[in-house]
Each structure stands twice: as structure tokens, then as C-alpha cells.
Amino acid sequence: MFAKIRKGNGFGGCLDYITRVKQDDKPIEKRVWKILDSDGVRIADGEKDWRKRAAADIERPTLTRSKIKDPCGHIALGFAPEDAHRLTDEFMTQVAKEYMEAMGIKNTPYVIVRHTDADHPHCHLMFSRVDYDGKIIKPVTNWHRNKCVCRDITERHGLTIAEDSLSLDTSKLRGAEKSRIEIRQIGHEVLKDKSITDWPTFQRRMKERGVNVKCLWKDPDAKKLEIKTLIYAKGNHSFIASKIGKNYTPTGLLTQFEANLK
């Protein structure tokens, strides 16, 4: 089991993503998501504007105090394909709640949504980082605590140990998810070379491994060009940098380049 803490999501956009708003025209049995559990949230799938009401419910505690950075909590819990036969909806919900309790995600509105669009079982936790009493839930941003909690739950339930997607066997994946994980794994291997200290070298090394990296500029006509984001492409699939991982964004890579120079 592993957990990926995501940042920078708005409440409405996050709920649209984890409940796959683009699939609303499909029959329920063909959708790749389902709500496993929630608290303090009006769930009325099928009713008009139900997502707006649900997102407002999760956001409501944040309105009781001054604004904070990243008020919408969003964490993806992933499990190894080898454990798929054990991950019933009930067991996944139990594990998700154990994780939330250990990470201090309590006394706050939340929703747990399971996805079935990949071979490895996974679910998404969306919650308010301000609880019902107006207090900020700080432990959720602690990456070290996250790692320890995941390992404890994994070992306690006898699940397969996996730190993150770098350990996934991509031969068991398919489609865009397969390409995304492969790009991340290739990027991880490429960045092990500490002689890479600039964009051209990084782009060339990635291309040698079958991944094209394209820069998108904030203002192409400006005298001094600034990178807005990066687009990673492999095969028929492409992704913006944030979908690959924070280490592969312009900021993350610049930090790595500067460390390599030193």
C-alpha cells in the first residue's frame, strides 16, 4: 500500500475528477468509480448539481476561518495488483479509515471514492483540511508520517509492500495509466545521473528512453522565456508534468539540477 498526497486542488474540481464527471452519460454499471463512504456530505448521485452541493459541504468548515493554502485535502491510496483479490469495498473502506485516523484526518467532512480503471486497486480521499471546529489538519502534509503510516497498515494487514508507483509492474497495467507510470519510472532512472544539470540534457536523455518532453512557455514572445509547465509524451499518450509527479515539474527539476551542480 502507498499513499500519494496531492496538492493544489479546488473542491469542485477535485470532486469532478474523483467522481469522473465526464462519465455521467454512461450507465452506472459502466462507470469506473463508486462512492465507498462519506461524512457530512450530501451525496445524491443522479440529481442535478449534486456535486456542487457535495463540494460545498466539504468546503464549509474552511469558511469559518482565514484562508489557508491547499484547503482541499486529496490523497490517493494505492495497492499492489497482487492484493486485488483481498480488496473488497468493505476492506478498502476499512483500510482508508484506518489511514485517515492515523494521519489525523478526523472530525471533518470527507468522501472516499474507489476507481476501477486500473489493474491495481486504488481509492481517493477528499476532505477539508479545516475540521468542524475550525482547526487546521496539519499532520496530513507530513510526508514522513505518511510513509510510516502506510508501512504500518501494510504490515499489519499482510499486504504487499510498495512505496509508490515506482515499484509497480507496468506489464499488468494498460492504456494511459501504463504510459504515465512508465514515464515516471523512466524519469526516476534518468535523474539518478547526477551529471544532468540542464533542460536540453534532461530532454535528450528522456528521448533516448522513448519519452518526449516539451516545454510550454508562459509568454512565447517575451524577451526572457519562462517555462509554464512540461508535457511528457510516450506512445499515444501525453501528460502535463503535475500528472507525472512533483519531481518532474519545472520547479522540481530545477531544484534537482541545482543540487546536481553543487
Distance between the termini: 35 Å
Overall mean pLDDT stands at: 89
Largest pleated sheet: 5 strands, antiparallel
Looking at the structure, the CATH topology of the largest domain is: BirA Bifunctional Protein, domain 2
Structure in words:
By secondary structure, the protein is of the alpha+beta class. The protein has two domains: 2-164, BirA Bifunctional Protein, domain 2 (2-Layer Sandwich); 174-261, no CATH class. Helix content is 34%, strand content 19%. The protein has eight helices and eight strands. The protein has helices at residues 11-18, 50-59, 89-102, 143-156, 175-190, 199-208, 241-244, 250-261, and strands at residues 2-6, 33-39, 72-78, 110-115, 122-128, 212-217, 227-234, 237-240. The strands form two sheets. A five-stranded antiparallel β-sheet has the order 1-3-5-4-2, with helices on both faces. Strand 4 and strand 5 (122-128) form a beta hairpin. Helix 1 crosses helix 2. The longest helix has 16 residues, at 175-190. The two termini are 35 Å apart.
Provide keyphrases for this structure.
8 helices, three-stranded antiparallel β-sheet, alpha+beta, BirA Bifunctional Protein, domain 2, single chain
Detail the topology: elements first, then pairings.
Blueprint: E1 2-6, H1 11-18, E2 33-39, H2 50-59, E3 72-78, H3 89-102, E4 110-115, E5 122-128, H4 143-156, H5 175-190, H6 199-208, E6 212-217, E7 227-234, E8 237-240, H7 241-244, H8 250-261
Antiparallel strand pairs: 1-3, 2-4, 3-5, 4-5, 6-7, 7-8
